[in-house]
């Protein structure tokens, strides 16, 4: 494949315009239920997409693979990456760990993650998402999973200072129907979904989109199933020399979006911050303690 750090779906999207009509039909089919839809035999994939077997062979070569076996090998590797548990990830890193200090190894990994994420980030996607988040005609909802729920809450906490009509949705899926009921056409749902993806997130996104809600997805390089429902998708590099995925780059994206919205609406945001500070001063619960002089 042209670049080892990129996924097969990245390559398909990058070269999509150069494909023939039949090859695009095949590409659409593969992306529809990626990566599982590409794991069958070459004959099965061709039949499912309604194209010929030679079309499959030609397309994978156009994508930069030597042949269908190499193409499928990459898909299998991606699938393994998305379902890796913390023990598997730790053992893989420990096996290849160099002798340098963990601080240096971690810093190198995070720096590379940030560099690679930024190189692939479309500024139009960023600006489009920031514009949606700053639009007061839309309500904004935030939701994350077991781990990423903390990032969703962090994002929400800042955005509720910047603008009204913000809601944090619990990661308990039993409460989601009530929130969907309150969503109006044009509202925005920000979803965090990192590998091992939660099927409930894809269901939430699908239902919300059917009701006219705009989805902003923050995921990893392999891409949550939510991506097919999202208008804007951010794919962060999360690999680190640890049993756990790194949230550094994901948090960077969140803070960059916060600043973009805040800067674009600074006069309004400043008024809200001033009013909030006044409320803090008026409330005994939040009043700043006074220092008493020692007698």
TrEMBL record:
Residues 6-82 form the HTH rpiR-type domain. Gene3D superfamilies: Glucose-6-phosphate isomerase like protein, domain 1, Winged helix-like DNA-binding domain superfamily/Winged helix DNA-binding domain. SUPFAM superfamilies: Homeodomain-like (SSF46689), SIS domain (SSF53697). InterPro entries: Homeodomain-like_sf, HTH_RpiR, RpiR-like, RpiR-like_SIS, SIS_dom, SIS_dom_sf, WH-like_DNA-bd_sf. Keywords: DNA-binding, Transcription, Transcription regulation. PANTHER family: GLUCOKINASE, RPIR-FAMILY TRANSCRIPTIONAL REGULATOR. This is MurR/RpiR family transcriptional regulator.
């Amino acid at each position: 494949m042209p670049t080892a750090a990129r996924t097969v779906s990245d390559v398909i999207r990058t070269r999509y315009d150069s494909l023939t009509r039949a090859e695009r039909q095949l590409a659409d089919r593969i992306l529809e239920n990626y990566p599982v839809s590409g794991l069958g035999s070459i004959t099965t994939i061709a039949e499912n997409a309604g194209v010929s077997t030679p079309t499959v062979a030609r397309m994978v070569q156009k994508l930069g693979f030597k042949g269908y076996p190499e193409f499928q090998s990459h898909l299998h590797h991606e699938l393994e990456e998305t379902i890796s548990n913390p023990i598997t990830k730790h053992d893989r890193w420990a096996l290849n760990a160099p002798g340098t200090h963990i601080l240096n190894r971690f810093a190198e990994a995070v720096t590379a993650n940030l560099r690679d994420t930024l190189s692939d980030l479309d500024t139009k996607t960023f600006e489009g998402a920031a514009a949606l988040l700053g639009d007061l005609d839309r309500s904004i909802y935030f939701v994350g999973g077991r781990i990423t729920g903390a990032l969703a809450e962090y994002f929400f906490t800042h955005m509720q200072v910047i603008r009204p009509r913000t809601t944090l949705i619990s990661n308990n899926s039993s409460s989601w129907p009530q929130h969907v009921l309150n969503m109006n056409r044009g509202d925005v749902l920000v979803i965090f979904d990192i590998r091992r993806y939660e099927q409930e997130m894809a269901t939430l996104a699908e239902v919300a989109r059917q009701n006219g809600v705009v989805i902003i997805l923050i995921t990893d390089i392999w891409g949550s199933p939510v991506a097919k429902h999202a208008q804007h998708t951010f794919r962060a590099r999360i690999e680190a020399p640890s049993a756990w995925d790194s949230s550094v780059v994901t948090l960077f994206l969140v803070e960059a979006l916060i600043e973009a919205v805040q800067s674009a609406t600074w006069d309004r945001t400043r008024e809200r911050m001033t009013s909030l500070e006044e409320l803090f001063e008026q409330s005994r619960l939040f009043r700043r303690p006074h220092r008493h002089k020692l007698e």
